[in-house]
Design a protein that fits this description.
This protein is mainly α and 504 residues long. 43% of the residues lie in helices and 9% in strands. The N and C termini lie far apart (66 Å).
């Protein structure tokens, strides 16, 4: 089989894995029962696995499949980057017509940036911090799709349907499309997410870097690529340029990640090569191929040095000290509610990959990415915002799809007893308390079998001074789990007259 055919097989592999990634995104639509393989790609992510295990000081069985990726890398090199990674595939497909493959020829030392990012992530993980896991390529892609692309797609489709539906002869077609798409491809309700502009801006910025150099992110910034690159230095099977090489430069021109060192006789650098085989197919002499090697690739000028390792540890230590001496630790945000089953804030922060898997499956859009509510250390970790969406009493999906166990995988009965917070009635805003207006919405909506909100009759004067009897809501602390449905359904405009606070 020629290398051109192998290259075609690689392209088919990229399409297949990208399609699988997209399918899993849609298969994990907001619903009460989680799709069992929604986090499949994260289970094979070595950076996510290593970071979460270092940070939590625990072996996480769900992420053990990352060893398969690592084993393949030790044998074949960075096949994940060139054959599997959906982010890498998208970056390979994104071309700027006015820019050649390498508009800017950067110094090889730029590659040290991704290694430094990797070292900082791992050093911080050793200190129990996973804040920079926001830079893992899978989390970037999933988070962007969850908070921006999929909600935007749903909004566009719904808006077009609303515009076209008054046209009578189109109504049967639109009804059929709704029946086909709604609930299986598109969510039942429009999802909304906080900070979606910031999240999508990061994603667009990464794509825009392709205007400087093709797959700029993969070459110079990707921490997962850096980790796999280090493993590739001892890969057994490596692509090589044959002895009959005429140094025509065709392989170098074909390489999309600039992994061929002309200064060393057109040598393919294993740590940079993504095994795309473009160079092998481009070689006019057909002398390029794969060769067994039992010796590690020699150190390059841009490989991590002892000084850089120490610098990464120092930067991580300083950063963590600054993050953990903020005012949030002195006075925790009273409205910061974590998903059900999360008992300890630090345990969540030391495991959460910031991947937004939990937010994607939340049927009410109640789970939202945090910003500064818990300090920047908790950036883009999940928080429950009941006024946007409550924690569904019949749903335990968030814990089922969490790849690292940051949200415990509770069975439904256990989840229904998990304490999220405590509802408190604001008597200055509550209609029965403040105005004597009849309202029993919070009591009606409470899902607890024994009702955590009870109504008590009280006599008070109406607007004319005449006595009236109203039913005032009271929260029973021993029964309230803080699901937030009362806050979501409260009819008072603006801030609800009943709010869920974190329990201290």
């Amino acid at each position: 089989m020629t290398w051109s055919r192998w290259r075609r097989i690689r392209q088919i592999s990229q399409i297949a894995f990208f399609a699988l990634f997209v399918y899993l995104l849609f298969a994990a639509l907001p619903q009460q029962a989680a799709f069992p393989f929604a986090d499949l790609f994260f289970r094979f992510d070595p950076l996510a696995a290593l970071g979460a295990m270092l940070s939590s000081r625990e072996w996480i069985p769900r992420l053990a499949l990352a060893l398969v990726t690592l084993a393949l890398t030790l044998v074949l090199g960075r096949v994940w980057c060139g054959w599997v990674c959906p982010m890498g595939t998208l970056l390979e497909w994104v071309h700027f017509p006015s820019a050649p493959k390498r508009t800017v020829k950067l110094s090889p030392h730029w590659r040290s940036v991704k290694y430094f990012i990797l070292l900082v992530i791992l050093a911080a993980a050793l200190m129990g911090n996973l804040s920079l896991m926001v830079l893992d390529p899978l989390t970037i892609f999933t988070r962007t799709m969850t908070t921006a692309i999929l909600p935007g797609l749903n909004y566009v489709v719904t808006s077009i349907e609303k515009i076209l539906y008054p046209v009578s002869f189109l109504q049967p077609l639109l009804d059929g499309m709704e029946g086909l798409l709604r609930g299986s491809i598109l969510p039942q309700k429009q999802q909304v997410f906080d900070q979606n502009l910031f999240i999508v801006a990061l994603f667009i910025g990464i794509l825009a870097l392709n205007a400087l150099a093709h797959r700029f992110w993969c070459r110079y910034l990707c921490p997962l690529g850096a980790l796999l690159g280090l493993a590739s230095k001892v890969a057994i099977l490596r692509p090589v340029i044959g002895l009959a090489c005429t140094q025509c430069g065709e392989c170098d021109n074909a390489c999309s990640v600039d992994a061929i060192s002309k200064q060393e006789g057109y040598e393919i650098v294993p740590a940079d090569c993504i095994v795309c085989m473009d160079c092998l197919a481009a070689c006019p002499q057909q002398e390029a191929g794969f060769s067994l090697s039992w010796h590690p690739d020699p150190l390059r000028d841009y490989d991590p040095t002892r000084r850089q390792v120490l610098g990464a540890f120092a930067a991580s230590a300083v950063g963590i000290v600054m993050l953990r001496t903020g005012v949030q630790l002195k006075q925790p945000y009273s409205l910061l509610l974590r998903p059900p089953g999360v008992r300890n804030e630090q345990d969540l922060l030391s495991r959460c990959l910031r991947c937004s898997q939990c937010m994607k499956v939340c049927p009410t859009s109640g789970l939202q990415p945090t910003f500064a509510e818990a300090g920047l250390e908790a950036l883009w970790t999940p928080r429950l915002m009941p006024r946007l969406g409550y924690c569904d009493y019949g749903c335990n999906a968030c814990g089922q799809v969490c790849p690292s166990g940051a949200i415990p995988a509770l069975d439904l009965e256990t989840k229904r007893k998990a304490i999220i917070g405590l509802a408190v009635v604001d008597r200055n805003r509550c209609l029965p308390w403040a105005r004597g207006v009849t309202c029993i919405v919070c009591e009606e909506m409470c899902p607890m079998p024994e009702k955590a909100i009870r109504l008590e009759e009280a006599e008070m004067p109406d607007g004319r001074g005449n006595p009236i009897v109203v039913q005032r809501p009271h929260v029973l602390q021993d029964l309230c789990i803080g699901c937030g449905i009362c806050q979501r359904q409260c009819p008072v405009d603006g801030e609800a007259a009943i709010q869920v606070y974190r329990r201290t």
